[in-house]
Amino acid sequence: MLQSRRGFLIGAGSLLTTAFVKDARSFIRTNGRPLLAPPAQVVQTIYWYDRADDGHLLTLGEWRMDPPPAPTWREFFVKEGIRHQTDDEIEWICSEHLIAPEDFDDPVEERYWAQRFEIEDSPCAKAHRLLREINVGPDLETGKSPQLEFHIGAHPGDSSYWVNAKDELSLSLLQARLIDLKMPIKIAEGR
C-alpha cells in the first residue's frame, strides 16, 4: 500500500536548482542513466534496482529477500541490549516473546525473525526509515515525477517497508540532496 509520495524541494540555496534539473535531464537523455555526483565522503550506500514500471527500488545496503540465519534468543537479547538477568527481566522477556528461560539457547522463532527482518532489518526497511527522516521536499498528492514513493505492505498480511524512486531524475535529485545535506551516502546501481 502506498503510504506517501515526497517530491523534491528545488530552489536557491541548495544544489537542487532548476539549472541542475535541466542538466540532470540532459545527462539522462544522453547517457540513459541518472546523474549521480559522488559525495566527498562515503559511509553508506543506497542501492537502486530497476523495477520497470514501478520505478527504482531503494535499499540501504545490497538487496536481499531472505533474513540471515536466526540467532539464539540469548544472542538476540544481547545484541539488542535487552537485559535478561533478574527475575523481573526474565519474566517480562518470557511473556513478551512467549518463551521460557530454557528456550534462551534455542534459535529465535522463524516467523518472528522473518517479520522482524521485513519491518526492521531488511535493506528495504532500512532505506525506508532513513529516507523518511530526510527532508527532501513536500508530500505530494499526485504521481508526477520526480519523487520518492514510500510503501508499507503490498497486500493484506504483508508488513514489509520499501521506497521507490520514481525515475532516473528522482535518483539524481536524491543524490544531490544528500550531498547538499552533507550526508556521506552514495547512490549506486545494485547488481
Describe this structure in words.
Helix 1 (18-31) packs across helix 6. The protein has 191 residues and is of the alpha+beta class. The protein has helices spanning 18-31, 73-80, 87-97, 110-121, 123-132, 168-180, and strands at residues 2-7, 44-50, 56-60, 139-140, 147-152, 161-165, 185-189. The two termini are 26 Å apart. The protein contains six helices and seven strands, in the order βαββααααβββαβ. The protein has a seven-stranded mixed beta sheet with strand order 4-1-5-6-3-2-7. The protein folds into two domains: 2-66 and 112-189, no CATH class; 73-108, no CATH class. A hairpin with a 5-residue loop joins strand 2 and strand 3 (56-60). 27% of the residues are buried. The model has no long low-confidence stretch (mean pLDDT 89).
Q: Which stretches are low in confidence, meaning pLDDT under 50 for 5 or more residues running?
A: none
Largest sheet: 7 strands, mixed
The largest sheet has its strands arranged as: 4-1-5-6-3-2-7
DSSP helix fraction? 25-40%
The number of helical segments is: 6
Features:
2 domains, alpha+beta, 7-stranded mixed β-sheet, 191 residues, 19% strand, elongated, 6 helices
Please describe the topology of this protein.
Elements: E1 2-7, H1 18-31, E2 44-50, E3 56-60, H2 73-80, H3 87-97, H4 110-121, H5 123-132, E4 139-140, E5 147-152, E6 161-165, H6 168-180, E7 185-189
Parallel strand pairs: 2-7
Antiparallel strand pairs: 1-4, 1-5, 2-3, 3-6, 5-6
Helix pairs in contact: 1-6, 4-5
